[in-house]
Amino acid sequence: MKVKLSQGELKRQRDALRQFERYLPTLQLKKQQIQLEILHHQAFLKEAEDALSRKMKAATEWSALLAEDPGIGRWLVPKNVVRGKKNVAGVDLPVFERTEFETAMYDLFLEPLWIDRGIEALREIVSLQEEIRILEEGISILNHDLRITTQRVNLFEKVKIPEAKEAIRLIKIHLGDQMTNAVGRSKIAKKKIEAAAAMERGA
Question: What is the CATH number of the domain that holds 152?
């Protein structure tokens, strides 16, 4: 680390250190908030995955009936996945709200009796899959931001703040030495002047 050993540089390093020490707690708080939100997202994800597993298991009990209406898949494709947005510690995250489907239009006399309940159950499965996808997307965004924030915290804690403190220490030693030398030179000069004056008086 190369620094100018001057009064101006001392002020610059002190200002930088104050700025680093003021900004570091904000970064540390952001890191904690992101870590907490990751835990919340993981808990929501686990709930959604458990719910999906239960519904898939229930659906297998009557899935053989789907052979009666192979065209049912056309009613299970989402028309729109509505998502909101929330901000956590400066990070924009997607929020699953609902999955919208086209209204299923079919002839009640031609379709099997279970069709309404079947479509509803399968749409719930599709909706859970969409919710899981958005939760995973949110976790990915949070992990990315956590990496960046952690790098910044480490940069401030382990590099910037120690560097500024070391620079201040070196400059203060140098300026102290300069002052000591200046005092020493001043005393020598004073003695020379006094000696010269004494010689003049003696002459």
Answer: 1.10.287.3240
